[in-house]
From TrEMBL:
Xref: Pfam families: Bact_transglu_N, Transglut_core
SUPFAM superfamilies the UniProt entry points to: Cysteine proteinases
Disordered, as annotated region: 287-326
Organism: Paracoccus limosus
Bias kind Low complexity: ranges: 313-326
Annotated TM spans: none
Protein name, UniProt field: Transglutaminase family protein
Domain called Transglutaminase-like: residue spans: 172-243
Length: 326
């Protein structure tokens, strides 16, 4: 996959410090980042990398003054497991509060972090009433999540012109229009109004062309969906209300947080004198998995640490060979 961010400035900029959350995550048994390269033009004064509390990889760049453009190109190879949603073994809605209370940890995936409303996703009476009506017949927690997602998909219209990144969930809900960020933030707030822990997830979506049409380069997109905690037995479930589906093989995750601000792809400050124009593109190309060939006669398979290589073959008869060296 390739992700490109480009900014053009009317006048040379001042210095700036930016945080980029654009790198695909590694999630045990679901998603593995096999290889990644980030190119930045022009060269930053400083660069560093850290992991935030919720496990999202963050790239920090200090840019020099005098910029008229800034371009980042991320190239990554990601292995994503196309798991199905499986059987519904989630907690009954009446039992969910007990499961939450029994969770004693405060680790990044603890449901306690995702129950309270935030300044970005406040409590909205109209959204809470809508959530109660949409899930009135739900028995299990996962059933409530799916019913709510289907209702939002049915009642809202995807409209890239109706909202922007600062639009509040209440406004988008009143318009019944918006983009994936609006769908996700409304659903997160609605689930929390039902006392279901919900997180905002940021990532990328691989789009598929209509039957018989060629795949368009750059037609994929940055995307947002919802993660809901459905009880001790099943844990977290990812649902995409924009597309009325569970977030599975076509969804590539970057990270999650309590709202958009904790997963925003770009944060920071840069001194500007004039206007700027920004754009970004995403291109995800699926590659079939290549089966690993069995060892040839006289060779043995040695497991390596996680990475782009599954194994290393060496002559079985060489007792001096070091396991850590090719």
């Amino acid at each position: 996959m390739q992700v490109t961010f480009r900014y053009d400035f009317d006048r040379p900029s001042g210095a700036g410090r930016q945080l980029f959350r654009i790198m695909p995550a590694t999630i045990p048994d679901r998603q593995t980042l096999l290889d990644v390269q980030l190119r930045v033009e022009p060269e930053p004064l400083e660069s560093s990398h850290f992991t935030d509390f919720f496990g999202t990889q963050v790239v920090e760049l200090v840019m020099p003054p005098g910029l008229t453009r800034l371009e980042l190109v991320l190239e990554a190879e990601v292995e994503r497991a196309a798991l199905d949603s499986g059987l519904d073994i989630s907690a009954p809605l009446a039992q969910l509060a007990r499961d939450i209370a029994a969770y004693r940890g405060l680790d990044p995936a603890a449901p306690h972090h995702f129950l309270a409303h935030t300044p970005r996703i406040p409590a909205v009476a109209e959204i809470a009433a809508y959530a109660r009506a949409a899930t009135a017949k739900a028995v299990s927690t996962r059933e409530a999540v799916e019913m709510l997602g289907l209702a939002l998909h049915r009642d809202m219209t995807f409209d890239a012109e109706a909202t922007d990144v600062h639009t509040a969930p209440a406004e988008a809900f009143a318009l019944k229009r918006g983009v994936c960020q609006d769908f996700a933030q409304i659903m997160v707030g609605a689930l929390r109004s039902l006392a279901i822990p919900a997180a905002y997830v940021g990532g990328y979506l691989r789009t598929l062309p209509p039957p018989g049409q060629p795949r368009l380069v750059g037609a994929d997109a940055s995307h947002a969906w919802v993660r809901a905690w459905c009880g001790a037995e099943i844990g977290w479930v990812d649902y995409d209300p924009t597309n009325a589906c569970y977030a599975l093989g076509d969804h590539v995750e970057i990270g999650f947080g309590r709202d958009y601000d904790e997963v925003a792809p770009v944060l920071g400050m840069m001194r500007l004198d004039g206007n700027q124009a920004g754009s970004h593109s995403v291109d995800i190309e699926e590659r079939p998995l290549t089966p690993v060939a069995p060892p040839r006669p006289g060779e043995v398979a040695i497991t390596l640490p996680p990475g782009p290589h599954a194994r290393l073959a060496r002559p079985a008869a060489d007792p001096a060979a070091e396991l850590g060296e090719p």
